Amino acid sequence: MRRAFHKFKAQPTEADGIRFDSKKEARYYEQLKIRQRAGEVVFFLRQVVFHLPGGVRYVVDFQEFRADGTVAFVDVKGMKTESYNAKKRMVESLYPITIEEA
Question: How much is the pTM?
Answer without folding.
Answer: 0.86
